[in-house]
C-alpha cells in the first residue's frame, strides 16, 4: 500500500521533476544515486522555504533598521526641540529673575519713599494744627479789637451829641474863659481819634493775617492732599502684587495677616494711629489712619513673605530638567534644577533645620521646617553647610549642589510640603517671580 502511494506521488511529480541519477565514479568502481521525483520535490520545497524565510527575515530587518533610523532621527529632533525649549525657559527665567530684582529694588524704594512721606505727613499735620490754633487766636484778637473800635466810635458819637457846645467852643480858639476845658476836650478827642485809628490799623492787620493764614492753610491742605494721594497710590501698587502672590498659591491673604498679627502683636512706634483727643476724627486723620493700616498690612506681608517659601533656592544660572509629577512609572515629588557642581543652594524662607545628613535616595539632604506647616527639602547635595536645630533666614546659603544618592547627574532636587503632603514647587516660584 505504501509503495503504491509512493509510486503515484512519483508519477505526479515526474512531470515537473523527472527521475535523475547522480553517478559517483572512482578508480575501481562506478556507482549512482537515484533521485526520485518525490525526493526532488521535497528538496525543492525545503530550499524554497529556506529561501523565502531568508528573504522575509532580511526584509523585516531592513524595515526595522529603516524604522529605527526614523525613530532615532525623530528622537534626536524631539531632544533638540526639548533642549531649545529648556534654553528658552532658562532665558525667560533669567529675564524674570532680573525683573524680580528690579521689582524688589522698586519695592524698597517705595518703602523708603513711604517712610519719608509718612514723616512729612506727620509734620504737615502738626503744622496744620499750629496754624489752626494761630488762626483761632488771631480771630479772637480781631473780634476784641473790632469790639473796642466800635465802643470808641459809640463813645465819640455820644460825646458829640451830648456836648454840641464843646464842638463850637473848639472852633473859638480865642476864647479864654474856657481854654482849660477846651484844651482837655481837644486832647481827649485827639486821643480818642488816635486810639480809633490804631484799632482800625490793628483790625486791618488782623484781617491781613487771617487772609495769610487762610492762604497758607489752603496750600497746606493741597500739599497734604498730594501727599495722601501719592502715598495711597504707592500702597496700592505695593500691596496688590503681594495679594496676587498669595492668591496664586491658594492662600487667603486675610488669614495670613490674622495669623501674623497674632504672633507679632506689639504696638507703638511710627505706625501708631493718629488720635483726635476725644473729638470726631477729621477727614485727614481718617485717611492718615487708613495709610497707617496699609503700612502695617504691608509690614505683615513682608514678615509672611519671609516665612513662606516663595524665593528661588538658586541665584546662579541653572537649567530646569524635571518637574513635579509621575516619571518613569513613579511619582516625582519635587522639581529638579541642573547647574555646575558646587553651585550655592539658598534657603527659600525663614525656618529651622530639622534634618541635615544622608537620606537614602536623596543622598545628602537638608530639611527646613517653616511656619504655616511648610517644609522644604534640598536633595543630592555635595556639601551641607547647616546643622540640625539651626535657624536660617531666606536667602542664607545652606549647601552646595551635587550628585549624591539616586541621581543621574549633578542637580538639585527641591521639594515643598504642607503638613507632610508634597505640592508643586513651581507654583510658589512662579508666584514669587512677580515680587522678588
**Helical stretch tally:** 7
Shape: rod-shaped
How big is the Rg?
Answer: 51 Å
Low-pLDDT stretches: 267-272
Distance between the termini: 100 Å
Overall strand count:
14
The percent of residues in helical segments reads: 55-70%
Strand content: 15-25%
Compute the average pLDDT: 76
Order of helices and strands: HEEHHHHHEEEEEEEEEEEEH
**What number of domains?**
3
Taking the sheet with the most strands, its summary is: 10 strands, antiparallel
* Broad structural category: alpha+beta
Q: What tags apply to this protein structure?
A:
14 strands; ten-stranded antiparallel β-sheet; 436 residues; 7 helices; Glucose Permease (Domain IIA); single chain; 3 domains; two-stranded antiparallel sheet; alpha+beta; rod-shaped
Show the helix and strand layout.
Blueprint: H1 2-13, E1 20-25, E2 30-35, H2 37-162, H3 164-171, H4 179-248, H5 253-263, H6 283-307, E3 319-322, E4 325-327, E5 330-332, E6 335-338, E7 344-346, E8 351-358, E9 364-369, E10 374-384, E11 391-392, E12 397-401, E13 412-418, E14 421-423, H7 425-433
Antiparallel strand pairs: 1-2, 3-6, 4-5, 6-13, 7-12, 8-9, 8-11, 9-10, 10-12, 10-13, 13-14
Amino acid at each position: 500500500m505504501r509503495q503504491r502511494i509512493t509510486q503515484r506521488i512519483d508519477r505526479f511529480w515526474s512531470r515537473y521533476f523527472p527521475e535523475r541519477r547522480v553517478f559517483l565514479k572512482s578508480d575501481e568502481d562506478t556507482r549512482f544515486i537515484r533521485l526520485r521525483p518525490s525526493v526532488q520535490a521535497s528538496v525543492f520545497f525545503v530550499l524554497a522555504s529556506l529561501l523565502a524565510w531568508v528573504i522575509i527575515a532580511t526584509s523585516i530587518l531592513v524595515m526595522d533598521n529603516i524604522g529605527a533610523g526614523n525613530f532615532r532621527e525623530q528622537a534626536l529632533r524631539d531632544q533638540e526641540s526639548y533642549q531649545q525649549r529648556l534654553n528658552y525657559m532658562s532665558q525667560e527665567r533669567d529675564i524674570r529673575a532680573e525683573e524680580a530684582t528690579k521689582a524688589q529694588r522698586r519695592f524698597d524704594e517705595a518703602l523708603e519713599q513711604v517712610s519719608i512721606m509718612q514723616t512729612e505727613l506727620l509734620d504737615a499735620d502738626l503744622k496744620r494744627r499750629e496754624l489752626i490754633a494761630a488762626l483761632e487766636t488771631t480771630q479772637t484778637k480781631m473780634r476784641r479789637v473790632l469790639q473796642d473800635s466800635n465802643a470808641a466810635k459809640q463813645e465819640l458819637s455820644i460825646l458829640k451829641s451830648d456836648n454840641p457846645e464843646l464842638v463850637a467852643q473848639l472852633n473859638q480858639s480865642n476864647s479864654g474863659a474856657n481854654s482849660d476845658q477846651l484844651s482837655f476836650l481837644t486832647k481827649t478827642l485827639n486821643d480818642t481819634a488816635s486810639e480809633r485809628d490804631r484799632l482800625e490799623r490793628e483790625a486791618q492787620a488782623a484781617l491781613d493775617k487771617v487772609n495769610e493764614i487762610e492762604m497758607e492753610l489752603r496750600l497746606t491742605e493741597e500739599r497734604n492732599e498730594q501727599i495722601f494721594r501719592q502715598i495711597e497710590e504707592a500702597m496700592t501698587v505695593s500691596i496688590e502684587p503681594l495679594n496676587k502672590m498669595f492668591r496664586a498659591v491658594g492662600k487667603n491673604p486675610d488669614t495670613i495677616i490674622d495669623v501674623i498679627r497674632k504672633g507679632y502683636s506689639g504696638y507703638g512706634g511710627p505706625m501708631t494711629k493718629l488720635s483726635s483727643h476725644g473729638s470726631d476724627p477729621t477727614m485727614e486723620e481718617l485717611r492718615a489712619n487708613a495709610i497707617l493700616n496699609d503700612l502695617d498690612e504691608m509690614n505683615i506681608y513682608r514678615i509672611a513673605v519671609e516665612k513662606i517659601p516663595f524665593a528661588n533656592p538658586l541665584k546662579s544660572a541653572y537649567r530646569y530638567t524635571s518637574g513635579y509629577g509621575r516619571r518613569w512609572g513613579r511619582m516625582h515629588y519635587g522639581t529638579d534644577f541642573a547647574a555646575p557642581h558646587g553651585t550655592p543652594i539658598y534657603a527659600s524662607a525663614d525656618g529651622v533645620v530639622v534634618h541635615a545628613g544622608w537620606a537614602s535616595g536623596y543622598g545628602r539632604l537638608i530639611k527646613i521646617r517653616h511656619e504655616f506647616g511648610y517644609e522644604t527639602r534640598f536633595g543630592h547635595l555635595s556639601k551641607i553647610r547647616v546643622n540640625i536645630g539651626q535657624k536660617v533666614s531666606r536667602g542664607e546659603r545652606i549647601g552646595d549642589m551635587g550628585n549624591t544618592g539616586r541621581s543621574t547627574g549633578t542637580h538639585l532636587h527641591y521639594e515643598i510640603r504642607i503638613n507632610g503632603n508634597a505640592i508643586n514647587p513651581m507654583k510658589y516660584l512662579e508666584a514669587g517671580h512677580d515680587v522678588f
